[in-house]
Specification:
globular, Dna Ligase, domain 1, alpha+beta, 4 domains, 424 residues, 12 helices, five-stranded parallel sheet, nine-stranded antiparallel sheet, binds adenosine monophosphate, D-amino Acid Aminotransferase, Chain A, domain 1, Rossmann fold, binds glycine, 22 strands
Length: 424
């Protein structure tokens, strides 16, 4: 089979590595890819928002399956364009990707179908939002409705902070059009867990749990980022939590989307908070997490192409997912200054160490080639160093060992990825 992967981050490298393991994959393309993906796939210089170009490239090459990685093209309807061109695509159509693309949509869906989540109100008017804050409890959470690179959420300790937040989201448009509407919701406390699943419109199969570290600095300080590291499984995701979520969250979400005439085919990523009152949905994503994919996919035993084809063909009920009885930790190596301002173009050394290192993975996120063909940094998140081990502590020690194999001028990482597992 010929496979085209759309995207250029660590998630897409992890997807490419899983696809490359399949005996069915004869040829892999990636648009646009990165320096690491180039070791597994032929990278083509087409951006993720060039839908017509992606479709005509796939037609011309006789691609059998297109896998769409990132949220933006999914929300903007890339899968619909591919299907109209007669291609097979893995990922939700536009009318289902709205599960991630609009927080107001997802909150209304949860309310309508009784799926546990934080209490909330939706606003499309800044004055009404400000008036609501007069009688609210604090802290409180403000969310821009649309996609904002995972940064459209403000946690406000006081009324003054919240009023300033409403202004920056709805009037100053800090997150652009994503702030035309906003959700104001109850502040919850508890541990966060990410759960990834495959869905075929009717059936849902849970992969495994993971935990992300969203803040830039140790001790969960600093700004929110796309994710600075992950581990899988989460020791806090107990059988009891799993049973609750299966009954009240996972299947009910899939059924709700089907009832709304928006059958979801692809990956649903459930962002959960384990509160004192039980698990609650923080958010849905309509794709693999990044860097959750970098710890979940290396543990998956199934042929990823088989699973994706079963989703597209609506026969996921025939598939049982199997995971290694091990653990994985991913430490993100970033450019110092990420997520605000950072330099790039620095040569990366030490990548060869990963070639034959069993249980160690170096997923490229922001990398490219310079004029001399050397691998250089090209983004905020540069590499995701993943290691697997018999348990989380072993995997963490190995991931940090391997994080030391690689070097570049402004290398930055958190030193406490997976620290929470010591409390489990
Ligand atoms: P989201 O993009 O909705 O996942 O929000 C980003 C982050 O904000 C989450 O990972 C949480 O850490 C935090 N967050 C979102 N909603 C809430 C909430 N209702 N209460 C407390 N923290 C929240
Ligand atoms: N790591 C969180 C996300 O992919 O949204």
């Amino acid at each position: 089979m010929k496979i085209l992967i759309v995207g250029s981050g660590g998630r897409e490298h992890a997807i490419a590595a899983a696809v490359a393991k399949s005996p069915k994959a004869d040829k892999i393309y990636c648009a646009p890819g990165n320096a690491g993906i180039a070791g597994l796939a032929e990278c083509v210089d087409i951006a993720v928002d060039e839908f017509e170009k992606i479709a005509s490239f796939a037609k011309e090459k006789g691609v059998d399956l297109v896998i769409v990685g990132p949220d933006d093209p999914l929300a903007a309807g890339l899968v619909d364009v591919l299907e109209e061109a007669g291609l097979r695509a893995f990922g939700p159509r536009k009318n289902a990707a709205i599960l991630e693309g609009s927080k107001a949509f997802s909150k209304d869906l949860m309310k309508k179908y009784g799926i546990p989540t934080a209490a909330y109100e939706t606003f499309s008017d800044a004055d009404a939002a400000a008036a609501y804050l007069e009688q609210a409890d604090f802290p409180i959470v403000l969310k821009a409705d649309g996609l904002a690179l995972g940064k459209g959420v403000l946690i406000c300790r006081t009324k003054e902070e919240a009023l300033a937040g409403v202004k920056s989201i709805m009037l100053d448009k800090q997150f652009g059009a994503a702030g035309n509407r906003m959700v104001i919701e109850e502040y919850m406390t508890g541990r966060e867990v990410s759960v990834l699943s495959f869905v075929d419109g009717r059936t849902i199969r849970i992969m495994t749990s993971a935990q992300d570290h969203k803040r830039a600095c140790d001790g969960d300080q600093g700004l929110n980022t796309g994710g600075m590291g992950t581990f899988s499984p989460s020791p806090f995701y107990t059988q009891e939590v799993d049973a609750f979520c299966r009954k009240y969250i996972y299947q009910p979400t899939v059924d709700a989307m089907a009832k709304e005439g928006r059958p979801f085919c692809g990956v649903i990523f459930f962002g959960l908070m384990l509160t004192e009152k039980g698990p609650r949905v923080l958010e849905y994503n309509a794709r693999f997490g990044d860097p959750e994919a970098q710890v979940v996919l290396p543990r998956m035993k199934n042929d990823i192409i088989d699973v994706m084809e079963a989703c597209i063909d609506g026969r996921l009920d025939e598939v049982e997912l199997q995971f290694e009885d091990n653990a994985a930790v991913c430490v993100v190596l970033a450019s110092e200054g990420y997520p605000v301002k950072y330099e790039k173009g620095y040569v990366i050394c030490g990548l060869d160490r990963f070639t034959d290192a069993d249980g160690y993975y170096c997923f490229h996120a922001g990398t490219g080639f310079d004029a001399e063909g050397r691998v250089v940094t090209s983004g905020g998140r540069v590499l995701g160093i993943t290691a697997t081990g018999a348990d989380l502590k072993t995997a963490r020690a190995k991931a940090y060992e391997a994080a030391g194999w690689v070097d570049f001028a402004n290398k930055y990482m958190r030193t406490d990825i997976g620290k929470a597992i010591d409390e489990a």
